């Protein structure tokens, strides 16, 4: 079994992936495509084309001649990104994960344990399987009224794998979730620390697969937009949200600025100026904070955000 990738995907741009086993004098018997992207992809192998929906895995038989496969993202939401991992399998080898939906990684995660904790809570020295590539921490019935923060720290290295508020929350109850990439983990155990003034249940899962972050938002890209016709400020979006893209337009004003508190994220200076940015993974707008459009001078200003939240 050999992995190729993960590879970044761009809609309508083909990706050719060679069989790594062919260079070693033998060829793979089948290949599993793990489409961790919001794109539908067309996979061509042995002269046949297979259609994979977004966030699914499928194992495809090969002729055994070492021929490369081609992956074409054929459709999907505009402005989104994602990746694909290709797992090459020899005869009698089984795919590392079950074929089917990838969305909701916890459905095939390996449970590390569930326990009721009281008050200020921590889990110290929790073992992690060496195959873990994603750690999923869920806080259930967390009812102390504050947005919970979470730290996941390597017991041996002291490295923070995660240290921020949990930004995934159920809309109907006090359940919170963090999906934490653990690629390149250097620890055998982790310490998990959070605080509460009431009892709650903490569930921890280790997943052997790694996904593009958009998997945890079910691939849903949302937009928020607003505008101003005079000098002033207006909230464009209030967190919690994962920020994906931002664009502002300044029409006749001195300047248009997009910012959080006193920190400017993006500015368009000068008449009819525009500015846009694609934000890196992990760009979180915390709960209760707002991304604000400010117009300086006469004229008008507009802002549009791409964001995600389940």
List keywords for this structure.
single chain, 310 residues, mainly beta, Jelly Rolls, 3 domains, 5-stranded antiparallel sheet, 0% helix
Q: What is the CATH architecture descriptor of the largest domain?
A: Sandwich
In terms of quaternary structure, the protein is single chain
Based on secondary structure, the structural category is: mainly beta
Mean pLDDT: 78
CATH class category name of the largest domain: Mainly Beta
Count of alpha/pi helices: 0
User: What's the domain count?
Assistant: 3
Report the C-alpha radius of gyration, rounded: 23 Å
Main beta sheet, described?
Answer: 5 strands, antiparallel
- With strands numbered from the N-terminus, the spatial order across the biggest sheet is 1-8-3-6-9
Overall outline:
flat
CATH topology of the largest domain: Jelly Rolls
Number of strands: 27
Distance between the termini: 34 Å
**Would you identify the regions where 5 or more consecutive residues have pLDDT less than 50?**
103-109
């Amino acid at each position: 079994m050999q992995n190729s990738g993960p590879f970044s995907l761009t809609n309508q741009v083909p990706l050719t992936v060679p069989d790594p086993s062919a260079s070693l004098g033998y060829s793979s018997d089948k290949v599993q495509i793990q489409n961790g992207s919001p794109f539908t992809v067309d996979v061509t192998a042995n002269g046949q084309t297979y259609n994979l929906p977004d966030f699914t895995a499928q194992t495809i038989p090969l002729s055994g001649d070492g021929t490369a496969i081609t992956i074409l993202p054929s459709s999907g939401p505009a402005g989104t990104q994602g990746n694909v991992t290709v797992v090459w399998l020899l005869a009698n080898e089984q795919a590392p994960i079950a074929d089917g939906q990838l969305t909701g990684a916890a459905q095939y995660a390996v449970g590390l344990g569930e326990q009721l904790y009281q008050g200020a809570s921590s889990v110290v020295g929790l073992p992690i399987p060496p195959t873990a590539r994603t750690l999923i921490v869920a806080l259930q019935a967390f009812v102390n009224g504050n947005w919970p923060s979470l730290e996941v720290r390597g017991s041996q290295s002291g490295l923070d794998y995660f240290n921020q508020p949990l930004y995934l929350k159920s809309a109907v109850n006090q359940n919170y979730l963090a999906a934490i990439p653990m690629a390149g983990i250097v620890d055998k155990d982790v310490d998990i620390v959070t605080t509460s003034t009431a009892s709650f249940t903490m569930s921890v899962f280790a997943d052997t697969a790694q996904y593009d972050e958009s998997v945890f938002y079910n691939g849903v890209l949302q937009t928020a937009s607003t505008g101003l016709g005079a000098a002033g400020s207006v909230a464009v979006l209030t967190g919690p949200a994962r920020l994906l893209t931002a664009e502002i337009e300044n029409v006749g004003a001195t300047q248009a600025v997009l910012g959080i508190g006193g920190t400017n994220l993006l500015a368009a200076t000068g008449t009819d100026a525009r500015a846009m940015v694609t934000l890196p993974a992990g760009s979180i707008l915390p709960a209760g904070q707002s991304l604000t459009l400010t117009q300086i001078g006469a004229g008008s200003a507009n802002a549009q955000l791409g964001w995600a939240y389940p």
